[in-house]
Amino acid sequence: MQNPRVNQALIVDLYELTMAAGYFDNSLNIDATFEMFIRDLPLNRSFLVSAGLYQVVEYLKHLKFEDEEIEYLRKLPPFKHVSNDFFDYLRQFEFRGDVWAIPEGQIFFPGEPLLRVTAPIIEAQIIETYVLSMLNFQTMVASKSARVAQAARIDEKDRGVMEFGSRRAHGPEASVLAARASYIAGCMGTSNVMAGKKFDIPVYGTAAHSWTMAFDSETAAFEAYHRVFPESTILLIDTYDVKEGAKNALKLNKKFQGVRIDSGDLLEYSKIVRKILDDNDYKDAIIVASGDLDEFKIKALVENNAPINSFGVGTKMVTSEDAPSLGGIYKLVEIERDDKIQYKSKFSDEKATYPGKKQVYRIVDDNGNYLKDVIGLVKDQIPEKHKTLLIKVINKGKLVYESPNLKTIRNNFIEHLKKLNDACKRFENPETYPVLYSKNIQQLFNELKKREI
Amino acid sequence: MQNPRVNQALIVDLYELTMAAGYFDNSLNIDATFEMFIRDLPLNRSFLVSAGLYQVVEYLKHLKFEDEEIEYLRKLPPFKHVSNDFFDYLRQFEFRGDVWAIPEGQIFFPGEPLLRVTAPIIEAQIIETYVLSMLNFQTMVASKSARVAQAARIDEKDRGVMEFGSRRAHGPEASVLAARASYIAGCMGTSNVMAGKKFDIPVYGTAAHSWTMAFDSETAAFEAYHRVFPESTILLIDTYDVKEGAKNALKLNKKFQGVRIDSGDLLEYSKIVRKILDDNDYKDAIIVASGDLDEFKIKALVENNAPINSFGVGTKMVTSEDAPSLGGIYKLVEIERDDKIQYKSKFSDEKATYPGKKQVYRIVDDNGNYLKDVIGLVKDQIPEKHKTLLIKVINKGKLVYESPNLKTIRNNFIEHLKKLNDACKRFENPETYPVLYSKNIQQLFNELKKREI
User: Fold this and answer.
1) Which of B2, B22, B192 sits opposite A13 (nearest CB)?
2) Do B333 and B34 touch, CB atoms closer than 8 A?
3) Which chain B residue shows the shortest CA-CA distance from A135?
4) Domain containing B357: what range?
5) Are A314 and A424 in a shared domain?
């Protein structure tokens, strides 16, 4: 990317920095392990799709505090009694810890660490806000988009979903990240040009109603468009009247790629328009549908055989409208001081946190199909055939993992999804995919709990 | 801000650029006026709060296409037949139009243009995606946050709301923008340090549960914190047990600023903790409450006299959880070609768009209280005492408006809110604030409709 990096060190909750100063000035030299995980499935979801790791790694690689930022912090009232040494420390700060993570495009479930960080406690703490905001958002959008793509049955026919939501995303950056996350989860591309350029995602889009309205007639607008884009013209035919629009498209008397319908009863209109096109030797012209779509509407259209080739989906996908936040948290699970390990847990019923550095063991059958997951300690021995989900991404501050390109991530996701059984992917009342804790981790948790009481 | 600007020209839906190329290669030299407005109030809202104009102006000021971006576009398949002249045009592109807008922190309503752009049609079209994504998002968050601040009755007591939602915002940039928008709408500050530095917003935050868990005991953790932050210590007392936590705070035997409760029954706990503090000569220590709060929970706490001094509100405010997108649209209302004006309208019942360049006339009484709004044409003469909401921001590409600083915007909002009558601000079943269309605009609309039929 040609753009200069904006320094993101201050995208952090103040308390991460006050804690950092507190650890520093108390000379608390301990290594801490934090894990990021999601407690519960969002409404309507039966699985989660990992996304956002690439941006987290970029952030960690470049994380540093500039002089101007340090001067700002130094002048904040709470930092009045903080030592100069702390600010000197910040000036030379870099992330030197270890990071393990589930690669992007993987299917995972609540309780499973998406990311595990082991580092001097200040380093592990300071990154919390950014890491959560990035992983929560992209994972939320990918998990929603997977449902939209599934509803469109992108695997059965040459049908696709285009992400069209930039104008309703939560700001310009969110629009780019949402395009990325939805592509990972099976969308065919996006309308967002920045996302296209930055992540090599196919970009789509032709014209809006304002194009048609800027000309004296619909036919004049269609002709003018086709003149400039003879091979890629998708005519938006619903500015005035869909049927008339379809007929005006025929008046072009030239091959065009297709038409788009953006309003009204998409099932009825798509059938009418398909017939008009077919009856007039435009069998190859595709029909694109858009307008307030989500997975439920798309499912109904597909099940009723609406002759729609691709869906443009915006607002409801990029804001994950039925579940517009993902509650990922970042919890302390272990500290190490003078080579002595202390496990950390929380015991309250709803908010239990299991102790220790974890790995997710996915038990598979001989064909690689997913049978169940076991959340265990990293040192657990799992006798059944399995794969481990978390891989090492950063070792003592050095990147040891090369992120695949986005197309590969998307392909990986599509392969993973095939291995999850259909009952767990059902739209309504899906079966719960079995996720268990290993004996060792249960035992450790119970021991710590006993000691607590 | 010390950071280099990231060029944002490509944060645009592809179709804005194909239309631009289409207008260019068809030599369609017309001036177009687009207006951005919201059709309907989001769920649970009775008014909207304008926010995001500052970022839109910054974007327009700096909008240009870099060589690398132009090369990317040129290679996209749809642009195959587009003339070289168009790319030369893009290379020297700058925004030279006029912009009128409702200033930030104003109360406004559906149908009222928040922004009006008049420019050569390509310029007016290309900016649509960015403008919508920015204004939709910040206005959505400000409109939600206004309710949260209102529920906390920030005007009656020394009570405040702190924005704590960065980790659940839709990515890092959204976290900064959400902090800004919620401050405009009455929050006292944010945990987001970048927002604090960039916009001069007060920043808040002390410590997380992980701080307490990193020490061998809660008292050790409290002492260590107080050592470094003697004047600003807010002790998080619910890591293990709230009552014990409050008692451990007393064991400090030193003045501290307050305590924070982040879980459980905040009404009951705040009362218990207040009593413990009061009984032990800590009458000045404040109580901060947080944990999954929104305006409804805060309203219930305040109405039940929970002794809470400030609320930390996150997820539900920064994602506007009950209405997580704002459907602002950007519509063509007028074009001018060879000094001839054509008005543009849409006539469908649900999606009517009124024609012409508009102004919002707010009719006020002698004390400045808001009586009703009239959406009229710019040339309308309104006999009643009124103020006009849209002001000129950019004139032929030159900035002619200086945005107030954020504190002033926030103060303006608080003053505006006082002028809206209580019935329209009620939480449940609010009265609808009257918004009418002027006779002239109705007449124009009806004439155009007749001509259409």
Assistant:
1) B192
2) yes
3) B171
4) 14-126+327-452
5) no
* A6 contacts B6? CB cut-off 8 A: yes
Give the CATH number, domain containing residue B230: 3.20.20.70
Query: pLDDT at residue B2 above 80?
Result: no
**Within-domain flag for A5:** no
Which of A42, A16, A177 is CA-nearest to residue B164? Answer: A16
Nearest chain A Cα distance for residue B207, angstroms = 5
How many domains, chain A? Answer: 2
Q: Which of A293, A291, A288, A290 is nearest to A317 (CA)?
A: A293
- State whether B327 and A315 contact (CB < 8 Å): yes
> Do B308 and B173 share a structural domain?
yes
Residue of B nearest to A168 (CA): B133
DSSP state of B404: P
CATH of the domain at A109: 3.20.140.10
Mean pLDDT of A261-278: 97
State whether B55 and B84 are in the same domain.
yes
Confidence of residue A155 (pLDDT cuts 50, 70, 90): confident
Residues of B in contact with A14 (CB under 8 A): 191-193, 196, 203-205
Q: pLDDT tens digits, residue range A313-332?
A: 999 999 999 999 999 999 99
Task: Render pLDDT for B146-156 as a digit per residue (tens, 0 to 9).
Answer: 999 999 998 88
pLDDT category at B1 given cuts 50, 70, 90 is very low
- B229-258 pLDDT tens trace: 999 999 999 999 999 999 999 999 999 999
Per-residue confidence band for A156, with pLDDT thresholds at 50, 70 and 90:
confident
Coil/strand/helix, residue B84: helix
- C-alpha–C-alpha distance, residues B113 and B115, integer Å: 5
Distance from CA of B78 to the nearest CA of A (A): 6
**What percentage of chain B reaches a pLDDT higher than 90?**
93
Q: Which neighbouring-strand residues pair with B377?
A: B358
Please indicate, yes or no, whether residues A303 and A347 belong to a single structural domain of this protein: no
Chain A residue numbers with beta carbons less than 8 Å from the beta carbon of B316 are: 325
Give the distance from CA A82 to its chain's centroid.
38
Residue B378 scores a pLDDT above 60 = yes
Set of chain A residues whose Cβ sits within 8 Å of the Cβ of B210: 19, 32, 34, 125, 331-332
**Two tokens, residue B270:** 């705040």
A413 phi, psi to nearest 5 deg: -60, -45
Using a 10 angstrom Cβ sphere, with 0-12 exposed, 13-18 middle and 19 or more buried, the burial of residue A36 is buried
DSSP 3-state of B268: helix
Identify whether residues B158 and B65 lie together within a single domain.
Answer: no
* B4 inside domain: no
Are B165 and B175 in contact, with CB atoms under 8 Å apart?
yes
CB B188 within 8 A of CB B154: yes
Contact call for residues A401 and A137 (beta carbons, < 8 A): no
Could you tell me which residues come within 8 angstroms of residue B233 by beta carbon, excluding any fewer than 6 positions away?
Answer: B206, B222, B225, B226, B256, B257, B258
Let me know whether A271 and A383 are in one domain: no
| One domain, residues B193 and B309 | yes
Q: How many CA atoms lie within 13 A of B132 on its CB side?
A: 29
Residues of A in contact with B2 (CB under 8 A): 7, 66, 68-69
A73 and A193 in a single domain? The answer is no
